[in-house]
Amino acid sequence: MLKPSQRREAMFYAKTSLFAAAVFLACFAYLKFLDIPGEVNKSVADTAIILMGLSMLISSICYYWNRFDWTIIYRKYLGLVGFAFGIAHLLLSWGAFASLFRATTWSSGAYMPALAGVVALGIFAIMAAVSNTFAASKLGGKAWRYILRTGYLAVIFVFLHVVLLKSARWVSWFTEGMKTLPSLSLLVSIFMVVVIVMRLLLWFSLWKAAKKIDQL
Ligand code: HEM
């Protein structure tokens, strides 16, 4: 029999998983519409970064717009369900991962996109490992929050990962007159820029507010 707190936790996981399924289906439908191959792995990858990006974006959104405060509880669940999609993407991209263990990949310089993905996934794994009250109490609030903020660095690594893999396609799409809708990888990359810019704005607002208090 589940305790009320466990039931609440299970309900948040269930709601977040439903949301993740909807995001996955929307990505899948978009890629199918564009007739892009490899749509399952790409939808999994795009869902991963949309969920993890949203989990970080929520802090900035709630700071500026109080009506979204109800979403703050979902930060943890979006991060963890997004991370599960990240792991699934790694398994579906096993060939690219395995190439990191071949000398030719390093001598040809082709290691960068996969390495950026692995570093990002490593950072997200640390965040996932500390996303519980036990870790928070052991680490102390300051160190705990510091570790969770490395998530923004991970988003930058995912951005690099996608730019290195996809930017040549974006350039030909643009120079050939943008005859189709933009690729999903371009849209999620713009989303990642929004996540980082919103965080920088939040830091600036917090810094300004702290300066005002100092002057009182
Ligand atoms: C949390 C970590 C990661 C995230 C969020 C992520 C995200 C993404 C995204 C958004 C794309 C573009 C999908 C599209 O074209 O619509 C992508 C592509 C790709 N990623 Fe990752 N990635 C991660 C880690 C990794 C790792 C560790 C590997 C393997 C070493 C990897 C291998 C690939 C490959 C091979 C593609 C190209 C897929 C294709 O064009 O079919 N990724 N990734």
Question: What is this structure's SSE topology?
Answer:
Blueprint: H1 4-33, H2 39-64, H3 74-92, H4 94-98, H5 103-107, H6 112-129, H7 133-139, H8 141-149, H9 151-175, H10 184-215
The structure holds protoporphyrin IX containing FE.
> What's the total count of β strands?
0
Number of domains: 1
* Average pLDDT metric: 96
Radius of gyration: 19 Å
Order of helices and strands: HHHHHHHHHH
Number of helices: 10
- Structural class of the secondary elements? mainly alpha
Low-confidence stretches: none
Sheet with the most strands? none
Q: What is the end-to-end distance?
A: 54 Å
Fraction of residues in H or I helices? over 70%
Shape: globular
> In percent, how much strand structure appears in the residues?
under 5%
What ligands does this structure carry?
A: protoporphyrin IX containing FE
What does this structure look like?
The protein is mainly alpha-helical and 216 residues long. The protein has one domain (4-215). 81% of the residues lie in helices and 0% in strands. The chain is built from 10 helices and no strands. The longest helix is centred in the C-terminal third of the chain and has 32 residues, at 184-215. The radius of gyration is 19 Å and the shape is globular. The model has no long low-confidence stretch (mean pLDDT 96). The structure holds protoporphyrin IX containing FE. Residues 38, 41-42, 45-46, 48-49, 86, 89-90, 93, 96-97, 114, 117-118, 120-121, 124, 158, 161-162, 165-166, 184-185, 188 line the site of protoporphyrin IX containing FE.
